[in-house]
Amino acid sequence: MAVANSCMMMGAQIAGQARAPPLFECRADTSGSAKHERPDSGSSPPTGFLKRGACFGASAPLILRFPPNFVRQLSIKARRNCSNIGVAQVAAASVTNIPVSSAPANAGEPFVLTCNNSVQADGALVEDFVSPDGTLAVHSGEKTGRAIVTDAIATPIVQTSTYTFKNTAELIAFQEGRHISYEYGRYGNPTTQVAEEKISALERAETTLLLASGMCATTTMMLALLPAGGHIITTTDCYRRTRQFIQTVLPKMGIKATVIDPADIDSLELALEENNVSLFFSESPTNPYLRCIDIELVSKICHRKGVLVCIDCTFATPVNQKALALGADIVLHSVTKYIAGHNDVLAGSLSGSNKIIGAVRALHNVLGGVLSPNAAYLILRGIKTLHLRVQQQNSTALRIARTLEAHPKVSRVHYPGLESHPEHHIAKRQMSGFGGVVSFEIVGDLQATSRFIDSLKIPYIAPSLGGCESLVEQPTIISYWDQSSEERARLGIKDNLVRFSCGVEAFDDIESDVLQALEAV
């Protein structure tokens, strides 16, 4: 899909945040001779200098800024002596200025998600699937708009905890919105901002907030958006720690929860009628049974009551599903999984409007679940191959699911790409791929299932998912071993349940390994 030359730059200063687009005009001259003009502290800000809280719109000039203490490091000697804390790293400061080619020309029109290029009528993945997000994944936030200080392709790491001001007048100008900069590491970082802009581009979001983990994103979002004495609606099948937070922490603030089946629209409407609900939250697909929410329908129903909708799309990825385009207000990711993609970083993200994410960011600045610049760098590296990895994982998972469904030693397979899945019709409509995780039930008990897992040679026995390596787990043991068998049964966790996260290994090798391991059952 061709990428247009024009661009829309997203992101804003929200609620006192210091996550700022850097200052100084970007120049094509690589000699460093261009003059950098700053507004006088006593004058009104010229065009392009944004006040705190102002939206960084498409009409604003592309501006970048060097922190004052880096200006004197422009000499060749200084740059040679700077390792990963030198002036070259300031080049990380950037805004997303690669457009969303598939976004509507009229910003008021809804984005229509189509999956005709990747899903056939029978739900099968087309083998030559090419993601329209590939160019965005590689270049958004980075290629254009970065300060021309270094010839490095990779966005450098700005490894600093704080930022300086050259004098008190400049600091006052910053506080009054006449001078845009960063202030303190908890409020923003240039490397992190590039990663946020890249995720925003993939999600078609106004802004994104990166946090220290997926659970940090979940808990901070709920604490920010749920009032004391409020009410949340969530679904039965979900990540255990999310359920634990909703059931044990939120009640301390008088917040009650209604838990419904992912497909039970009648119960959703009843809960909205009977309670003063502030937030609907669900994963889609869910963990571990991969149930799918009808995001468009649920969003319409909730919005009629003024209820915000947050969808955890970790299992789907931004490549397979655009929750915001389907009507959700917030999309959440455990960036640890597919987006980072290499099992080497913890992170979480929240994407949505400036207003909603701004409210979460304000609390985040207080709670302090900050992502390190080095982790942001790893996310940038990983996300550039997201569309390629997901394409391989989609294909492998669908083929493995079909193989397992036909095997006599497997009683049931949970995968939204199969017609036997209860929400297959929803997944076909709102997803362009069905994800890389397959859950299935072995014919046998806890011990028989453990024999199958122990016989596998390629996947690691480990929690998590979405990385290059295949991972396998028995949820009963790895996540719920501290629960009684009765409690596990109440939560729907069966002793013979297996969750298999497909990596990017060759499909033939994975299939052969799975079939041989089933012989041990």
TrEMBL record:
Stretch list, region Disordered: 29-48
Gene Ontology MF term list: cystathionine gamma-synthase activity; pyridoxal phosphate binding
Top-rank EC class of the record's enzyme: transferase
GO biological process: methionine biosynthetic process; transsulfuration
One CC-aspect GO term: chloroplast
Co-factor requirement: pyridoxal 5'-phosphate
Domain of life: Eukaryota
InterPro entries xrefs: CGS1/2 (IPR044639), Cys/Met-Metab_PyrdxlP-dep_enz (IPR000277), PyrdxlP-dep_Trfase (IPR015424), PyrdxlP-dep_Trfase_major (IPR015421), PyrdxlP-dep_Trfase_small (IPR015422)
Protein's UniProt keywords contain Methyltransferase: no
Pathways involved: Amino-acid biosynthesis; L-methionine biosynthesis via de novo pathway; L-cystathionine from O-succinyl-L-homoserine: step 1/1
Pfam family, any one: Cys_Met_Meta_PP
Family: Belongs to the trans-sulfuration enzymes family.
PANTHER family membership: CYSTATHIONINE GAMMA-SYNTHASE, CYSTATHIONINE GAMMA-SYNTHASE 1, CHLOROPLASTIC-RELATED
Protein's name in the database: plant cystathionine gamma-synthase
Lineage: Eukaryota, Viridiplantae, Streptophyta, Embryophyta, Tracheophyta
